[in-house]
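Comment thread on ticket #2218

A.B. wrote:
> Attaching the input chain for the structure job we discussed in standup.
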Amino acid sequence: MPSRQSGTVAFQSNAGEGPSPTSVLYVYVCDTMSPDTNASDQRGVQVSQLMATEDRYAALPDAHRSLLPIGRIIPVAMVVGTLAIIWAAGWQRDLSLETLARNRAAIDGFVAGHFSMAVAVFVALEVAVVGLSIPGALILTVAAGIVFGWWVAALAVVAGATLGATLIFLVARTACGSNAGCRAGPRLSRIAGGLKADAFSYLLFLRLIPVFPFWLVNLAPAVLGVELRTFVAATAIGIIPGTVAFTLVGAGLDSVLGPQGVAYRHCLAVGGRDCHLGFDVHAILTPQVIAALAALGFLALIPILVRRWRAGYR
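C.D. wrote:
> Ran it. Output below, let me know if you need it in another format.
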């Protein structure tokens, strides 16, 4: 019978020979179970037969583990390849308010004539920017408020950012495997278990406060084994306050950037070399805005604090 040891992979050969990828029954026992505990009686223990391809591979001893399965490599390679093309072409530099100012007349005409299609194109662009972790999501949010108005922009940004975050989450989970946090060792396994127990509250906190890199909050939950539905719900809800705030700022900036846009386009028309808008979009992240969003973030931690206080009181 396979031995039950914390944080190990046990196996038994069907042919009486050394273990091989096709003839081994793999059972993975996470760090939450002690060696002398019955798996069926231990609460919170995660023991499963690794029948799926990725889990069978993850359970292989080091002697039989080689390169990652091709199915895991392909999504990562596609993301890296797309990023390389974008950076080589310099397309990421077009995510700026200057680009909006240069093309404002054409953009406004397209939105006026094809509103639904314009919103769909923006959502697709948001998915790409967030999914590929390209800097410029804040600029897109502000620009959407300028072009669409705050409430349409907020809905489009939340939809696009949630879809993009979900896509990169799935890519990371495919590459790492669903039990990556447990396979990484006892210490990380315990951390992953604690985070997964209150994953929604922790993720909500990280999403509400705009000081944590968005790409990092997309990848870390995938590595630690957070459920997809928890990730999607916390992401969609958590980005709403910041998105509404920044699209409102964008809608208000339209009157300010209008005259500056005219001057900027005139500067370009006469061949000016130092043409730029006199506004830095990152100035929106004032200490007051960050403090307000941080307060909302700490509210998301209250359920965790209450549960731990009650557990300690008992």
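A.B. wrote:
> Thanks. Noting for the ticket: Residues 107 and 250 are 16 Å apart (CA to CA).
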